[in-house]
Amino acid sequence: MNINIILLIIQALIGSQTFTLQNGDLLFQDSDCGEFCDAIEKVTEGYEGANLSHIGMVILSKDGPQVIEATTKGVVMTDLKRFLSRSNDKNGDSKVIVGRVNKTHSELIPDAVQYAQSLLGKRYDHVFDIKNNTYYCSELVYESFKYANGGKELFQLYPMTFIDPETKETFKIWSNYYNELGKSIPEGKLGLNPGGISLSSKIRIVHMYGMPSGMICSNNTIKY
Questions:
Q1: Residue 78: which CATH number?
Q2: Where are the alpha helices (DSSP H) in 124-209?
Q3: Is residue 207 one of the residues assigned to a domain?
Q4: Where are the alpha helices (DSSP H) in 123-171?
Q5: Measured between alpha carbons, how far is residue 70 from residues 61, 118, 159 in Å?
Q6: How far apart are CA 176 and CA 181, in angstroms?
Q7: Residue 75 — very low, low, confident or very high, per pLDDT cuts 50/70/90?
């Protein structure tokens, strides 16, 4: 375990009073939404093994920090406190870790934030199609930074999978979901998820509000 994760854990244990969010920070959340979140987390481990199923972007405003995110209601702005209160670890702390774009790409943040705000009200991408002008949570972040980067992706797309790595069969929850939509499962199509973005070399993890499940806290030892 590297020194950074040790410092982040200590920081989480003593509280968040000294940490200040910056515009464009990425909030990775272990959101506990049931079988859907479990399936997402199972196919991609996040930072230090964290189970991460949702992501939002911080927008600083005169009313304080807000979070722009894509939920089933579409692209919306959410109060930070409400966002952080959705899921908690056994100590009652929010299961959210904060990623920050590296200094080499920090000049992209203002345009990424502005572009994300221009998408407010857009519909949610229920089928996870990166090209259909609707947005799921990771897609919102991806497209915002891609726009800011002159049309070149900052975060990489990978072939998506909806197959349980243990059983080698499609998760039942996804089979039922796409059957109800009358759509084919986009197995192998390009996309991305919160866990994958949290591992990107383009960001660094700068804060932990609490401890997401699955987080590796020592060599091969799971604390939560």
A1: 3.90.1720.10
A2: 137-148, 172-181, 194-198
A3: yes
A4: 137-148
A5: 19, 13, 21
A6: 9
A7: very high
Tallying the residues shown for the chain, one arrives at 224
pLDDT the model gives residue 222 = 36
Res. 27 pLDDT band, cuts 50 70 90 = very high
Give a yes or no: residue 103 inside a domain: yes
25, amino acid identity: D
Task: Say how many C-beta atoms besides its own lie within 10 A of residue 22's C-beta.
Answer: 14
Res 216 pLDDT > 90: no
Structural domain boundaries, residue 62? 3-152+193-212
Overall average pLDDT of the 6-30 stretch: 75
Whether 172 is covered by a domain: the verdict is no
Average pLDDT, the chain: 90
Neighbours of 18 (CB within 10 A): 8
- List, in sequence order, the alpha helices (H) in the chain: 3-14, 35-43, 80-84, 109-118, 137-148, 172-181, 194-198
Higher confidence at residue 119 or residue 5? 119
CB of 26 within 8 A of CB of 141? yes
Burial of 45 (0-12, 13-18, 19+ CB in 10 A): middle
149 exposure class (CB count in 10 Å sphere: 0-12, 13-18, 19+)? middle
What's the number of CA atoms in the CB half-sphere (13 Å) around residue 161?
12
Overall number of domains in the chain = 1
Over range 202-219, report the average pLDDT: 85
pLDDT for the residue numbered 2? 58
Band (pLDDT 50/70/90 cuts) for residue 9 is: low
